[in-house]
Amino acid sequence: MAKKREVQKQISGGVRKLVRQWERTGKIETSRATYRPKTKEEAIRQALAIEYGRARQEGKLPKRRSRPTGSGVFTDQEIARGYKIIWRP
Fold first, then answer.
1. What's the chain look like in SS3?
2. pTM of the predicted structure, to 2 decimals
3. Span 1-9, average pLDDT
4. What are the residue ranges spanned by the domains of the chain?
5. Which of 47, 49, 67, 70 is paired with 10 by a 20 to 30 Å CA distance?
6. Strand 28-29 relative to strand 34-35: parallel, antiparallel, unpaired?
7. 57 Cβ partners below 8 Å, 6+ apart?
């Protein structure tokens, strides 16, 4: 994995580029989809999601952690971490 500062610089540069594109055209285009955020805050949020996804895809960031499934079965490790077990008949 790359160093954190280098990755953050790349991400912030990409976000800047995407937000400028949104300011000019009103949309953010990627190879997969076209997004049309209504406000600048939405455009920034969408640009961040796109850039973090790119960095993960390139292997510069770790993959997202998966959430525990809703199976209701707890392992000993999860119990040791402090998950509360709710029993319902």
1. CCCHHHHHHHHHHHHHHHHHHHHHHCCEECCCCEECCCCHHHHHHHHHHHHHHHHHHCCCCCCCCCCCCCCCCCCHHHHHHCCCCCCCC
2. 0.68
3. 82
4. 1-89
5. 67
6. antiparallel
7. none
